[in-house]
Amino acid sequence: MASRGCPLRQSVEKSVFMKLRPDYAPDRVAESMKPLTGFLFTLIAAGHTAATLAAETVNFDSMPPAAAPAGWTATQTGSGTAEWAVVADASAPSSPNVLRQSGRAAFPVCLKSDSRLQNGFVEVKFKPISGQEDQAGGVIWRAQNPNNYYIARANALEDTVEIYHTIKGRRVGFKHVAAKVAPATWHTLRVDFVGNKFVVAFDGKPMLEATDDSFKDPGQVGIWTKADSVTLFDDFRWGEKLPIGDPLPRSERDGS
Q1: Which burial class, exposed, middle or buried, applies to 34 when counting CB atoms under 10 A from its CB (0-12, 13-18, 19+)?
Q2: To 10 degrees, the CA torsion angle through 218, 219, 222, 228?
Q3: What is the band of 15 on the pLDDT scale with cuts at 50, 70, 90?
Q4: CB–CB of 105/227 below 8 Å?
Q5: CATH says 53-242 is which class?
Q6: How far is the CA of 18 from the CAs of 12, 77, 78, 249, in angstroms?
Q7: Residues near 180 by beta carbon (within 8 Å), at least 6 away in sequence
Q8: Which has the closest alpha carbon to 253: 49, 50, 42?
Q9: Which of 44, 183, 189, 195 would bridge 156 by S-S if both were Cys, CB 3.0 to 4.6 A apart?
Q10: Helix (H, G, I), strand (E, B), or coil: what is residue 1?
Q11: Contact 208, 177 (CB under 8 A)
Q12: What is the pTM of this model?
């Protein structure tokens, strides 16, 4: 790792700080950076290329049960009838309520109506309950409408985590990995997305990285299931990220 006095390190840290706080005058930057020195460089050296600006969480606990959640577009991609409803569940990570999908449709979709992100993250806790055809939970980002979006999902029948784009209602997978997805168990699925680069994490562990250019514009975030999958969702989180440049070349990360 580069030494504390390394000019490259100091230059990178200053550049990152000024992008994060463009309102600061140059003479304030050095003083304001003191508590962050080392932290910013550590993030970049580890390959992080964006900073989270804000995050929001929905846990459904204040919403009336037996109805679709207010502020969401509860719908589906394709044929069938999705059934989205807030219900009480004793196993909820944040009790008492969860969001349940119990209908049958090609791809049940529930979009956060007031969300609009280009770069950011989306995360949810989900519990696959039952389903003969599918037992899955997924997150959506950059949704233009219920027929055009990105989706990452984990499937308890297949024990896989996979990433897709859905274009004009047609879902196409472009990367997947094997992973144990236990049924009737709460899991956490997260995607970080900046530009055309996506990182999918399952139960806190990064599982796959992918690139795709199908959707570049900001869009909604949301949650997803498939077919007859009865799935519970809780603690839905999302937030915007500010791109701060490309990671350092490996030779500069380790100071060589």
Answers
A1: exposed
A2: -130
A3: low
A4: yes
A5: mainly beta
A6: 10, 42, 46, 21
A7: 159
A8: 42
A9: 183
A10: coil
A11: yes
A12: 0.77
Name the one residue in this structure whose structure tokens are 């569940």.
Answer: 89
Q: What is the pLDDT of residues 121-152, one digit of tens each?
A: 999 999 999 999 999 999 999 999 999 999 99
Q: Tokens 């168990």 sit at which residue?
A: 185
The token duo for 236 is 């839905």
Identify the residue whose tokens are 């790792």: 1
The amino acid that residue 239 corresponds to is: G
| Residue among 209, 212, 246 nearest 50 (CA) | 246
Tokens, residue 208: 């796959």
3-state secondary structure 148-171: EEEEEEEECCCCEEEEEEEECCEE
CB atoms within 10 A of CB 250: 10
What are the sequence ranges of the domains in the chain? 7-48, 53-242
Sign of CA dihedral 211, 212, 213, 216: negative
Phi, psi values for residue 177, rounded to 5°:
-150, 150
